[in-house]
Sequence to fold (709 residues):
Amino acid sequence: MTASEKRGRGVGSAIAGQAVPILFAVLCLFGIWVAKITPAFLLGELSARVGRNSVLVLSLLLPILAGLGLNFGIVIGAMAGQLAAVLIVHWGGKGILGFSEAWLLATPLAVLFGLVTGLLFNKAKGREMVTGLIAGFFANGVYQLLVLFAFGSLIPFHDPGMVLPQGYGLRNTVDLTTIQYAVDNLVALRVTLEGVVTRIPIITYVVVLAFCAFNLMFFRTKLGQQLRAMGQDPHVAAIAGIPVDRNRLIATILSTVFASWGQLLFLQNIGTLNTYSSHEQVGMFAIAALLVSGATVTRATVGQAILGTILFHTLFIVSPLAGKALAGDAQIGEYFRVFVAYAVITVALVLHAWQIARAERE
Amino acid sequence: MIDRLLGMVREMGVPRLLIAGFVVLLFATAVATHMDIAALVTDSIVRVARNGVLVLALLPAIQGGLGLNFGLPLGVICGLVGCVIALNAGIAGVAGLLVASGIGVALAVPAGAGYGWLLNRTRGQEMMVGTYLGFAAVSGMSIFWLLAPFTNPTLVWAIGGKGLRTTLSLGDSFAKVLDHWLQFTVLGVTIPTGALLAFLAMCALVWWFFRTRMGITITAARSNPRFARAAGISDTRTRVQASVLSTVLAAIGIVIYSQSYGFVQLYTAPLLMAFPAIACILIGGASVTRATVAHVIIGTFLFQSILTTALPVTSQVIEGDISETARLIIQNGMILYALTRMGKESA
Fold:
């Protein structure tokens, strides 16, 4: 291949890489125009959504770096966060102190869950994504068994406000008002835009920035470089003396822990826990958000995580309104955004597999 | 003797033995608590006949080297379109069933071919691509159901007169036409002869197909692509054939499912349909790379028996519905087990 050919391909793939976010931005702008959404409304909604979802999206980066692909197992981390939230609220944790306790409590749980997930990934090399997806479903069953049957029967847990009338099993929703806005309202800036008061949760964004900084710095550490080498070629990395299996475990554990923290950050903004469904879509939405930015199964940056979160959630806000304006039915917009989430993941997976297949042929 | 026993256990696999043990335990509990065993057996058989063809649809994909076909909803959607068209036209009875299946198959052939073409370009990631292609197709079709130009007032929402309802009753159309055909009762157990025969006939057809020239080449290309190429078989083609066959069977499978269930379920209903079917065939003894018709029949029987008996039996012992939780754990535990064992067995 000559230099010019190489450059030609580089430019081509650069445009292809940007095609997804550009297309998405156009889609968002079209929706905004059709539904006549005001910037004040959009920014207000977006400020809350980006704040509460970014950490979950950032939790996907390390496994991608290590060559594990998209970690569909972050659902399991989210469950750890939810269990911690339930226990802390039950024990009367309040405000930022209660929230910090929940983070502390979620950590060992998430480490344990991440360890198990990582061991599973090591047994299913090359099929980590589908394994992670199914592991999430499986963990959901175990979570239900625990929360719906063991809480209040095997595990002593008596709280008439949280437990079902039968005496065991948590109610469908758990009220988290005691820790709601614990982080968001710590230092909040109120901005009045076109008469609409928008709250900007400063500390939440500081936390998000801290996670960004951690990821950026981690890439530069020895372990980060080892993960990168593994992501490029696990066989060469193993020959070079990198403990591949151990590092894969570390990447999975960190990702799971971050997901549990991210889910807690999400819940403190929402204020209620849907005991049996809050975690289910976490993986899909976080992954779709990351991919919208043009990230791939093998390459994703901190900037892409943030850009993707902003674009994806703009579409989330816009599409039901646009559906209503266009077809007189908000339901269409809701189906549309779910379709987009799945379609984006599908396209990314297809492109990824396509590239691998082509690389193998060459 | 002990060695042979251990060998048998290894052959069966520990999870499979556990599940068989669980079925025995459930029925034992039912007997001990004086439950209506005949009704439980009846329900189990009905569910086997209802789900059987959907499970069978996975077989060609496994035999063709595509792995577990998580893209099953693709075929299911084709069958659903067939059902809706037949309903909209008001074709009832066996004719309705045939029209629905016919349209389903006609749509499934190109859909399966396209799916196979895509899977050929995404080798090694078939399961992940299949899963999300299925999800995307189901959610895309949700928009279609809402906007499609169906006008029959029994199908569309009463208010607004637009958009199909989430569940359509087949009561006046082809509900249970197979189940009620030659139906008879023995010892209190009602046998849905027609539906069972349809399932077994499809099994026989697939069994026979994998003994024809085309079927043998599909299997040969999967088990040794290089050798097959030397013999003039291109596995690119056989994989597409396998995917078409799998999608077509899924389309027929959902029509049979709907007639037995009595309702057509649209929108998000097909989203997770692949997973229980996959659990069935795995419980029956199939692996990601090898499956037989016997695996389909045994697995469907075991898993569907658990699903039907778990709720009534466990509710005798504990309050609350533990069966859905048990289903999640067994179903996904089984798939996880198969995924982690993929490299260990000879293909």
